[in-house]
Amino acid sequence: MWKHVAANGLSLLIVLAIGVAVAVGWGQRQWTAEGPLEEAIFFEVPRGASLRAVSEDLAEAGAVSSAMIFRLGTEYADRAGDLRFGSYEIPAGAPMETVLEIVTAGGPSSFRYAATYVLRIEGTGELRLRERLPGTGEIVELATFSYEEGVPEVYTDLVANEQITVYRVSIPEGLTSWQIVQGLNQADFLTGEVVDIPSEGSLAPDTYEVQRGDDRNEILARMRASQEAILAEVWEDRVEDLPIATPEEALILASIIEKETSVPDERRQVSSVFVNRLNRGMRLQTDPTVIYGVTNGRGGLGRGIRQSELRDENPWNTYVIDGLPPTPIANPGRAAIEAAVNPDTTPYVFFVADGTGGHAFSETLEEHNRNVAIWRQIEAERAASGN
């Protein structure tokens, strides 16, 4: 009898082994076979989502044929902890192994609908709504608007249906901290009250990917951490014998450079003018510092500088103070900070606008006065023509 029982047991084990082998083989074929998607889709991995939840969402979206097989395959590959939140495009027919690579890749998120909020000097912002077409990847501009102008229906509909998966906040170089806070306060997709304006110059201009509902204070903290890292790195690579002694002074000089020129190739030349002036004990005499002293960084002046303002004795007026002002006058970008600590070697101590968007540089006052006369003639001609 025992021989009979043993024989039956052995037969059962063989059947089970064959069954397991068949199941494993079937699972492997499902893992590598063409997926069920007939067209590309955008799939969002929520922040902190579990493998089980993502597997079930993928199956519900039709991206994988079996949530269980996707989960088991991911665990077998030891990738369960590699899921990265974000919105990703999954192409038509993608096998499960490809889907896994996509949702664990990380990096910049793909999107179907994305909203980019670009801050402006007035302390407001312009929201740009875009669609990325599945399959082709073509980007289509759906709407561009400011909240003062009114919000288009296409935006409110997408928000109501939670279709916008990527939000970005873009901070141009040269905005003041007040302007940045004012702009963030207008962004309807952010939360949190900003009580204190960050110190001037402490925020790194950049484009930041955020999520709907993110706290404005946390975004500002990211900007501060980024600026601190940039300043520390750039300061280590500074040239010798600069007339600035600390990273904070480099940030002040960088902010002036940022406000004086928007031409990338000019930054180091402009820096050289200010460095030469500081080395010679000359006053910087730069208009943006005068404007900052008048406005306290709360928007632009909106008119020309008055003679009384050039003579006003305030800490930022570099026509009346020696050396650098006590704080930055804006938030400079990395390139301006690099220019502040790595200026060109030039004999220049003067510059003035040249009518092309750039500046004319000069070594002597006589040359500078000629350049100023040319610029005033250009201004007069533009005024006469209405341009």
Word description of this protein:
The structure is a single chain. This protein is an alpha+beta fold and 387 residues long. The chain has three domains: 28-110, Endolytic murein transglycosylase (Dna Ligase, domain 1), CATH 3.30.1490; 113-231; 239-385, no CATH class. 44% of the residues lie in helices and 13% in strands. The protein has helices spanning 2-32, 51-60, 67-76, 96-103, 153-160, 177-186, 216-236, 247-260, 267-280, 287-295, 307-311, 334-341, 365-385, and strands at 41-45, 86-90, 113-119, 125-132, 139-145, 164-170, 207-210, 350-353, 359-362. The N and C termini lie far apart (109 Å). Mean pLDDT is 86; it is low at 19-23.
Short description:
By secondary structure, the protein is α+β, with helices and mostly antiparallel strands. The protein has helices at 2-32, 51-60, 67-76, 96-103, 153-160, 177-186, 216-236, 247-260, 267-280, 287-295, 307-311, 334-341, 365-385, and strands at 41-45, 86-90, 113-119, 125-132, 139-145, 164-170, 207-210, 350-353, 359-362. It has 3 domains: 28-110, 2-Layer Sandwich (Dna Ligase, domain 1); 113-231; 239-385, no CATH class.
Indicate the percent of residues in helices. 40-55%
Distance between the amino and carboxyl termini: 109 Å
Category from helices, strands and their pairing = alpha+beta
Strand order of the largest sheet: 5-4-3-6-7
Number of strands: 9
Q: List the total number of helices.
A: 13
What does the main sheet amount to? 5 strands, mixed
Order of helices and strands: HEHHEHEEEHEHEHHHHHHEEH
How many structurally independent domains?
A: 3
The unreliable regions are: 19-23
From the spread of the alpha carbons, the general shape counts as: elongated
Supply Rg.
30 Å
| Rounded mean pLDDT score | 86
Strand content: 5-15%
